[in-house]
Each structure stands twice: as structure tokens, then as C-alpha cells.
């Protein structure tokens, strides 16, 4: 059984709802007012996003019908197919149908990417691939970003500090697609150590049941260790690309917060009492630096999903990012609108 789009949305909404309910019931009055205010702002923000996506797709040259057919197709055929797809109707009618369908959870049917297949089914099949890519990237960013930032703060104004600072700036400035191409050239083409693209070798693709469409989990559930190892090999380069491109933010944030915390009075008092320096830095100071870091994680998830568009395109990774790119190239309105909404 596949991990459907409805299951993903339902699970996510349930977790968010439970968290918000807990915050409202146990939090202070100011927290309750803040949560209620943010919830009320969600509706207009979603409406603005939907409207922008709808307008931008209509501004782009071409349409799903002309993109699908060969050049030179007669105008009568184009008009007939546009009428069947509803593209010849007034723009305000198309917009109203789009908004009302979204409100009912209907994202429409694909025109070109996977012709005549519901967009919810397509996203439900592609989204787990993006999750499989983003989750290890988040984990690696936290591990390397926090450790590097803490070491840099503890060795403030040393050679190690300067090297970490320069590395974080360079890593953040490198274009994701260029970094991915360089890793492909070095590790896949020259050294022949890792696969250049795709999620799995085609010879293993049909040797296990795609229950969740997260291949790491599916191959483990099937007990197919050869396929599991192949999935991990294919996961290395895109994960490293996404991690390197965004880890610099965590390094600099951890470093700046650690430097401030290390100047606090309780840190000086701990050192005066003879508490080991490692415990002072990596237990007391680092723990108190986590609040802004945890806040940044939520913001970086959106950045990771945006970066996944370029990463998935570079590595031919069949996830939500590549789906969005294919939808734009083929002017598939429902696919692009559905992918952006998700």
C-alpha cells in the first residue's frame, strides 16, 4: 500500500493540531492570543499564495495544450482540446473553479506530466522521495552545523574559528546545481564510487513492495539488503549537496549564540568553581544556545524544499522538486499549482 497524499496531509495536520491544542490549553494568555492570531492569518496567506500561483502560470507563454502537441498542429485541433480542458473559458471562471476545487481538496488532473492522472496521486507518490532526501539532510546539517559552530565559538578568533567562518560563507554562496554537478563529476565519473543520478538501480526497483515510497524504509521492510545498500549509495550525493549548501547558516548561528552565552555570568561562575571546560562549553553553554537554533530548523525546512527543486533536477531524483520543474516546463497548470500549495 502506497503512502498517499491524503495520508501525508492528514498525519501532518493531526500533529500540528495536537501541538496547537496543547499550546492553547497549557500556555499563557499571551501565547493563546498569539496562536489564535497566527491561525487567523493562515487563511489570507494561503489565498494570496494560491492567487499568485494561478496568475503566474497564466502569464507564462504557452499553455498545456500547445506544449503537448507537435508544432504545426492546426488551430481547430488546438481550440477543440482547449475547450475540452476548459482553457477557453473566461479567466475569472477558471480562477473560481480553481479556488473552490482547492477548498474541497481537489488539486485537479495532470495535463502533461502524467496525463489524466489526479494530481493528488502524483504528489502522494513523489512527496515521499523528497522526504527521503530532506530528512537526512536536516540531520546532517544539525550535527555538523552545531558541532562546527560550537568548536568555532570555543576557539574564538583562532585559525579554526576563521576557517569555519570562511567555509560557512563559501558553502552558503555556492549554487546548489553547480555543487551537485561537481560532486557528480568527481565521485561518479572520475572515481566511479557512487551513482550519478536516480533513486535506485533499475534492477532493484521491482524487487520490493513500494509500501511507503520511501525506499530506505521499503527495502528494510522487504529484507532486501542489496537494494537497501543501493538506495543508500544513490542517496549520498544529493544529500551531501543539499547539506553543504545550507549547513553554513547553522554554523554561523550556533557560533554567534555560543559566543554570547560564553560571556554570561553563570559560565564565568562555573569556570571559577572548577567545572571542566568541556562540560561548561558543550553542556551548559551549548544547551542554552539551542532556542534560536530550534527556531531556525522550522524556517530551514522551507529552504530545504526550495533547494530540493535544484537538487532533484540535478540528480534526476523523482521527488516533489523535480515534479514542479517538469510541470513548469510542460505548462501543466494543475501539477504546478498542486506542488506549490503542498
Polypeptide structure, described:
- With 342 residues, this protein is mostly helical.
- The protein folds into two domains: 5-103, no CATH class; 121-341, MetI-like fold, CATH 1.10.3720.
- It is built from 15 helices and no strands.
- It has helices at residues 5-26, 29-59, 64-68, 75-85, 91-103, 119-154, 159-173, 176-190, 215-222, 225-261, 265-272, 277-288, 290-314, 320-329, 333-341.
- Helix 1 runs antiparallel to helix 2 (29-59) and helix 8 packs across helix 10.
- The longest helix has 37 residues, at 225-261.
- It starts with a helix and ends with a helix.
Sequence-ordered SSE layout with sheet pairings:
Blueprint: H1 5-26, H2 29-59, H3 64-68, H4 75-85, H5 91-103, H6 119-154, H7 159-173, H8 176-190, H9 215-222, H10 225-261, H11 265-272, H12 277-288, H13 290-314, H14 320-329, H15 333-341
Quickly describe the structure.
This protein has 342 residues and is mostly helical. It has 15 helices and no strands. The model has no long low-confidence stretch (mean pLDDT 82).
